[in-house]
Amino acid sequence: MMKSSRPVGIVGYGAYVPRYRLPAQEVSDLWTDGNAGLPVREKSVNGLDEDVATMSIEAARNALRRAAVSPEQLGAVWVGSESHPYAVKPTSTIVAEAIGATPYTQAADWQFACKAGTEAFQAAIGFVAGGMAQYAMAIGMDAAQGRPGDALEYTAGAGGAAYILGPAEDAIAEVEGSLSYVTDTPDFWRRQYEKFPEHAGRFTGEPAYFNHVISAARQLMDEMAVSAKDFNHFVCHQPNAKFPLKAGADLGFNPQQMKTGLLVNEIGNTYAGSCMIGLTAILDVAQPGERILVTSFGSGAGSDAFAIRMLRKSETPGVTSTQGYIQRRKVIDYAMYSRLKGHYKLN
Amino acid sequence: MEVARYWRANRQRYQLVGEVCPNCQGKIFPPRDVCPVCEKEAKTPFTFSGHGEVYSYSTVYQAADGYEQATPYTVAMIRLAEGPLISAQLTDVDESDVKIGMPVEMVTRALREDGERGMIVYGYKFRPVMAVA
After folding, report:
1. What angle do CA A167, A307, A42 make, to 5 degrees?
2. Which chain A residues are within 8 Å of B122, Cβ to Cβ?
3. Residues of B with Cβ-Cβ distance to A85 under 8 angstroms
4. How far is residue A1's CA from residue A226's CA, in Å, rounded to a whole number?
5. Which of A114, A199, A236, A266 is catalytic?
6. Is B72 within the bounds of a domain?
7. What domains are there in chain A, each with its CATH number?
8. Do A54 and B133 touch (CB under 8 A)?
9. Which domain holds residue B41?
10. Is A129 helix (H, G, I), strand (E, B) or coil?
């Protein structure tokens, strides 16, 4: 378990979900005559003018408003994603410039499939605890790709969240402890120059997702000498509606503990943003003293687990809540979806 | 594409940073270093709130080069809360829902890209003010 010598917490946070929703039924109708089972109800889709940079900027602005921290105070702006707009050219400098954090800040892009965001979160705890920065921003955001007709096309969504980590005395929630668990497990990958990722089918379940999520969460609880009943909320990576509920049940959590952070049926799998935006939905409503267990999963593979305790209720007027973004929705059909994903070549 | 030209305008395009006139306190956008009202030198940076309302608008069906993917899209004149009138694309709104006087807020979005190999240009657009709930 990792426990910082200087108490660190979440000072501010912000969510972002784009406006468009593709019902999974649209994908099933086109590719299987409607015969495929639906892993989620619908997924979020980024607009033509949206990418990981623009979505991160809005989430970061929301986090700054909640934190009441000036952007110049951010010692780091880190963006975790598997869909950075450029292969070479940092997203983080675009975000840092747009929120006013440049030039005296650390900026970097993080990559670890769906746990790139929590990886940045984990590092930000250390950056603040070590005194390298008073405040550090960690973002998990994706505009995920799924090959047309592939199982991932039903779920690969868009959105995520930004967090500002800082001293616990300034925080709304304290990080009680954290843990990372990684192995070389090739369940999902995208080779350089390839547009869509590949996955190892059913292999992505037991040896990859369940092993890492359950091992990380269980080990953290064991080392903290706590169990599922000590937490009010559990949120983990959400590749579909079934996996997180099964992982949670194996760890001893009941559906009520998982309800608030489980967003996959409404927004799909937001990859590096998945459990991070699940956590913002919890922070929007959690009461002081409530405890939250967060566990990410990134293919390749690994999980980061965090035990978080609410210190005070987050109440910032003028900032859109996670559910506010989810309820802003425009349903699109597969033709519009193809356009938004750039499937049509005009020239 | 002129990388340097876009780079110079990063702050005004990403954050809506203009100027305030130290003489008459008028807010200036885009920045031009001379106050258009009192004609005195005005170089003090000023970050606009990003709030405003639709002054007028039109829908584009025949797009300029680089904007074909987005047609039809709506461009508008926005009266910023601090006074200046600027032109910008609207986003996250159906054309049938746009009204003169509609409150809008600035968002930073991708404006265009220089083909598959070129740079992506980011800048301000406006959308209907989000519900806060």
Report:
1. 110
2. 53-54, 94, 98
3. 110, 120
4. 13
5. A114
6. yes
7. 8-173+315-339 (3.40.47.10), 178-310 (3.40.47.10)
8. no
9. 3-128
10. helix
**β-strand partners of A309:** A174, A291
Based on the structure, what is the number of domains in chain B?
A: 1
Radius of gyration (C-alpha) of chain A in whole angstroms = 19
Angle at B61 between CA A343 and CA B112, to 5 degrees: 55
Across the strands, what pairs with A181?
A303
Max CA separation in chain A (angstroms): 61
Going by DSSP bridges, is the β-strand pair A291-295/A233-236 parallel, antiparallel, or unpaired? parallel
Residue A322 to residue A181: CA distance in whole angstroms? 28
Confidence of residue B1 (pLDDT cuts 50, 70, 90): low
Mean local confidence (pLDDT), A226-253: 98
- Look at residue B80 and tell me if it is in a domain: yes
- Which residue carries 């019902």 as its tokens? A23
Please indicate, yes or no, if residue B75 is contained in any of the structural domains: yes
Q: How many CB atoms lie within 10 A of CB A182?
A: 16
- Alpha carbon distance A200, A204 (integer Å): 6
- Does residue A263 have a pLDDT over 70? yes
A237 among known catalytic residues: yes
pLDDT at A179: 98
ipTM, two decimals: 0.96
Contact between A98 and B68 using a beta-carbon 8 Å cutoff:
no
Q: What pLDDT, in 10s, does the model give residues B63-109?
A: 988 888 889 999 999 999 999 999 999 999 999 999 999 999 999 99
Which H/E stretch holds residue A323? helix A322-327
Q: What is the CATH number of the domain that holds B12?
A: 2.40.50.840
Distance from CA of B106 to the nearest CA of A (A): 10
pLDDT band at residue B133 under the 50/70/90 scheme: low
For residue B133, being part of any structural domain is answered with: no
Q: CA-to-CA distance for B89 and B104, rounded, in angstroms?
A: 11
Whether the per-residue pLDDT at A276 is higher than 90: the answer is: yes
Residues B131, A57: C-beta atoms closer than 8 Å: no
* A82 in catalytic set: yes
* Cβ neighbours of residue B24 closer than 8 Å, sequence gap 6 or more: B35, B37, B38, B40
Report the amino acid identity of residue A255: P
* Res. A161: pLDDT tops 90: yes
Is A263 within 8 Å of A326 (Cβ atoms)? yes
